[in-house]
Amino acid sequence: MIVEHTPASTPEPNRSGCWRIAGTIALVLLGAALFTAALTFYGFYRQGEAFVQKVETLFAQPTPTPQIDVRAVIVKQVRNASELTTAIYSMETIVAQSQARELLGVQVGETKMIYVAYGEVRAGVDLSEIDVNDVRVISDTVIIRLPPPKLLDAKIDVERSYVYDFDKSLFGPVDPAMQSRAEQLALAKIRRAACENAILEEANNRAAIAVRALLEAASFRNVEVVTTPPAPSTCPKDEEGVSSP
Question: What is the CA angle 138-83-154, rounded to 5?
Fold first, then answer.
């Protein structure tokens, strides 16, 4: 007796179960993403701008602080104050001029003139000469050294000056330059008088007051101004045409 065996059929895979597993995984991943987004939103909500600033700080590059030379700032401000340091000395003086004419060693004529001159001398400190080497900053104190004072100009006011007397004898010489010499002599006397009346010291004092006030107005609280004596050649003791007493 012959028995035939029929092979058992292979069961088909359960496709619906696979899809259920894949769907579950997708839901888990979606839930994780939504949870992360919710945490991020909550962080924004709780911390606002502070949260944003913290994030920006992580990526921001540090910006170097610019270095400002305070001395250069001081020099720039002080150089604009030169006109405030000017001292002026005005004076009226009388000078006499005379010239003789001789013939064979004998005076045969003479011309005399008396001239009244009004003159003015200006002295000051040239603050444009200051540079950073003249400025020191120690803690909250600014120490600045000024250049020496100098005579800026001296002039005769021709509108106010005049010939007081002019006397010419019969054979007296005629010299067109006599008045010009009188003006030069008067100017020398006025310049010397200005120096003797301490015009340069006055210019130093004015400069110190002006510079101190300028820097204090610019919020520098402690200011020390060091003045420089004038050069000896600024006011010679004996000027041309003016003899010493």
Answer: 125
Which pTM value belongs to this model? 0.62
Query: Which residues are CB-contacts of 110 (< 8 A; sequence separation ≥ 6)?
Result: 98, 99, 100, 101, 168, 169, 172
Of 185, 217, 178, the C-alpha closest to 117 is 185
Q: Are 55 and 118 in contact (CB under 8 A)?
A: no
Strands (E), the chain: 87-103, 106-124, 135-138, 141-145, 150-156, 162-168, 222-226
Which residues neighbour 197 within 8 Å (Cβ) at sequence distance 6 or greater?
89
Q: What is the DSSP string of 4-73?
A: PPPPPPPPPP-HHHHHHHHHHHHHHHHHHHHHHHHHHHHHHHHHTHHHHHHHHHHHPPPPPPPP--HHHH
Q: Are 91 and 193 in contact (CB under 8 A)?
A: yes
Q: Can you tell me the distance from the alpha carbon of 125 to that of 87, in angstroms, rounded to the nearest whole number?
A: 9
Residue pLDDT, tens place only, 7-24: 544 455 555 555 566 666
The per-residue pLDDT for range 46-60, each reduced to its tens digit, is 555 555 565 455 445
**Residue ranges for the chain with pLDDT beneath 50:** 1-6, 8-10, 55, 58-59, 240-241, 243-245
